[in-house]
Protein: Flagellar biosynthetic protein FliR
Amino acid sequence: MDFAFDPAWLEAVMLASVRMAAFLVIAPPFSNRAVPMRVKAGLALALGLAVSPAVVPGYTPPDGAGFLGALIAEVGTGALLGFLVYAVFSAIQSAGGLLDLFGGFQLAQGFDPQSMVQGAQFARFFNLAAIALMAASGAYLVVLMGMFQSFDAIPLGVGIDVARSAESAVDAASGILVSAAQIAGPLLVVLFLADAGLGLLTRVAPALNAFAMGFPLKILLTLALAGTVFVALPGVVDALTETAIGAMRKGW
Structure:
């Protein structure tokens, strides 16, 4: 029995797997430390094999130095697309950080080595909730589908347009705070009004020292009303998934 070995097929699968691996290391929910690196490597190889029928026919094997350049280009492409997804979904964690800041939980800030999230309770809670919602709703499949489409827009070894990609990365990063404010906005308004009310009460009755009541009052309001923000998270994850796909397509 004859066995035909095609080096071009192996190179194409390897390059596709490298792009997938760079994407999975950065993009949520795959970037979570709960997913071992061996699992990410195996998943990247499996996804590279899955897209091989689409990428192998149009692949032209370069020489030795050209293959090294193609390998670096695939790492950069996967890392950029992963960063765009990460920047979009960081808005949920940033919204939790705003709640921690305005609600008085920032004093209990800590670092979670498992999820690589630095923040207080709501920042970590919202990050875990976003990952769980992405897994439960199938949003990660939509993100992977957008990654698969990148092989049509950016063939193997071609690389990305640096200027266009930098513009997309800046737009995604600048939109984090705006999206976070939109997510946590209603509760932030309530906390601001509570501060304003305490300020007026201090002016009316200075001896009352109303600001001493501010910390427990704001913590109580945050805990009582944070559920309204959490209820809206499924719709937020759905909207951010579409935004992430749009950012990836803009980066092409």
Remarks:
- The CA atoms of residues 199 and 211 lie 7 Å apart.
